């Protein structure tokens, strides 16, 4: 008795999990809850959402509403237990629904078409008739050829009382398109889960010239900055080899790993170095055209990969991908290296790297220059005509250089990296200012996601499945040839599970071809 | 001619076409119908050349290759492209089904979309691409999304017509649905029109965004009286649409379109739009985000709303498979689906703060 009851419960559960009704409910629930998730700002400062709720529902209700929403997980909704549960239910629905229907569909797919009894020809969605000259024997050849050329069907034949029956089908496999689509959704979900469990997301602000063997996850809790620094330095020094790093730090590897996890330090198996960060601008504007980082991957002390990355063009090594994401100043002017190319009037040239305050001599002359000032973004005030720094970024780097001949100042001026016209000195020598190095860092998004290929595979599968499901159809065709005196009656019955009108039009074309064939044969 | 002149011509043409199509509906004289079609075609040709001209202008300003100069990168350009697709789709249907009546429902969408550009003060200037937008995936993503949106817009008009045609009683849920939806739609547009007027009258500085003026001239007016009157006015208007909406039934009934044809066009439009939206809107968008930022899905509002739209149309497709859901109920879903589309496209930008608003690095 108890068993019986149990069984019906399981049956009921199975039935409701197999129903499209549930699918429709889930679509609606996912849509509605997601709407809430886009109104409430996710993972935001509580302040912001309380303010938002106050705007929507009034200030007095806001704090308690916030508490209710917060305890229900709406502040990080897409990772809350109930949202994940809905997704699981969704997957179960999809799987069970498919299991339930697949056998019937497979039968439809695999079943070969068979000749039909006469009366069944009345029930088709597409029915046609015409008369052609000649006996069935002759008509059979004509019809088969015409069908092959206009529809591409290879007809099978059976002898009947007063003639033949011809039949065939195409696109029987297209019935599986819907199932391919459904399957792809599961694949994508699996890929996402793999990514969550076996990948990581982090960032790295990499100063020009520096090598790191770690990345950092967001939101780690820094309790001991000194130890954090020591660990990062040790791991970097050992190029990501944790055994060696643990030795330097005189702790065992397990402790090191645990500490790294709590600090949000993700070891890389190699070193990554930024050789240069630069921004290209659209001509004569401050609109950035490209952010570029010249990166080097270092393994066992050797550079194994060089690449200039840009937004939309990341670098991948060993499953870890580095994305250009931000940038900024990493240090003071004391780190800066100013790069010049000197070209004297008589054609001698020389490349030069200088520190702030450094001096140089133009080759073949007595003229010396000294760096006196620097601005990352030099602009000229329109009213006063005075130069000033207009941005906190390297938008328009410029150095002020004073030139001397035999100890006395000849002239001085700003040299701008983006404006070569400023490089020419009154005496015809050229001092090209090629930029500053060592002051900026490149902000990299670091990601390892072994699931992404599963997700992409799922996407391709979905595209294929949808194409098949909507743009291809399963078409069946039966033709009876019945002998009459001197002529043959051609009776056509056909069906298509999708896009019937297109099939119908093709059959009508076929008919008119056969009809004109008749008159042609006269 | 430069692109903005051509765009001006096409906008004028579409608004004229809208008036002519509606006149045609009223009088049913075939010369009027032919005029409407001709004006629409003129508008379409002008718009095609306008897009081409803007492409060339963009290439000169953008200082990059042809592909990177495709003018489909911001709100303005995508709205223009949406209208282009919509008109193309409509013309195809007009020739295929040999029926013009339906122009009176599609050209207003085109006219409204173009008017919306002015209403919201969307940036029309050509801007060089910021680095994040320099991606071929983005181009495919925007193109395909808008082709899909256009098919959804078609499904919306046929779905609405179906509802108008099929509903009998004022107490019927489907009737209430379509009258209230239409009423609210018109009220919102009118309110935005007021905002625009106020914005134009009071604010001279182009730096101030109209966004912060949304509904301040009516529903959320600082003056309590204005706000109360607005709410009451809106309610009265929606009531009137509900009370007298039945009159539209005669109009739609006079089309030589059967309700089956309307239902079929609705389904077919969605059947074409859904795969395109899945591939272009969701998948290519995810690939682009993956290339640019290293996350293929980040649940930001724009992405989430695209997903909600997708669920709405999946809902539509599956609801047709349930017994008893053919007809009115599915038409309601088709109409709601397009409401989601509009919100995904405009509401998120105007009302929700998003990371996704075109461009920019973190
Ligand atoms: C977002 C997820 C889903 C997508 C994108 C999707 C997509 C599709 C598509 C494109 C069709 C073909 C519809 C048509 O021909 O008009 C379809 C049919 C169907 N779907 Fe889904 N589906 C999803 C989820 C589900 C779920 C959760 C179920 C669970 C019951 C389900 C059950 C079905 C069934 C039973 C059919 C009919 C199959 C047939 O005609 O043989 N789908 N689905």
What does this structure look like?
The complex is a heterodimer of chains A (522) and B (362). Chain A has helices at residues 2-17, 20-39, 46-57, 62-71, 81-110, 136-151, 177-198, 225-237, 242-248, 253-263, 452-471, 500-520, and strands at 126-133, 156-160, 163-170, 200-207, 211-216, 265-281, 288-299, 302-309, 315-317, 320-329, 337-343, 349-354, 359-361, 367-375, 378-380, 387-389, 398-405, 408-416, 430-437, 440-448, 475-483, 487-496. In chain A, the strands form six sheets. Chain A has a five-stranded antiparallel beta sheet, with helices on one face. Chain A has twelve helices and 22 strands. Chain A starts with a helix and ends with a helix. Chain A has four domains: 2-108, no CATH class; 124-171 and 473-521, Kinase associated domain 1, KA1 (TATA-Binding Protein, 2-Layer Sandwich); 187-329 and 442-458, no CATH class; 334-439, no CATH class. Chain A has 522 residues and is α+β, with helices and mostly antiparallel strands. With 362 residues, chain B is mostly helical. Chain B folds into three domains: 1-129; 156-167 and 259-362, no CATH class; 169-245, no CATH class. Helix content of chain B is 73%, strand content 0%. Chain B has helices spanning 3-27, 30-62, 75-97, 103-119, 136-166, 173-202, 224-244, 246-253, 259-293, 301-319, 328-351. In chain B, helix 9 (259-293) packs antiparallel against helix 10 (301-319). The two termini of chain B are 39 Å apart. Mean pLDDT of chain B is 82; it is low at 353-362. Chains A and B meet through helix 2, strand 7, strand 10, strand 20 and helix 11 of A and helix 9 and helix 10 of B. Protoporphyrin IX containing FE sits between chains A (20, 23, 90, 93-94, 97, 101, 105, 178, 181-182, 185, 466, 469) and B (314, 317-318, 321).
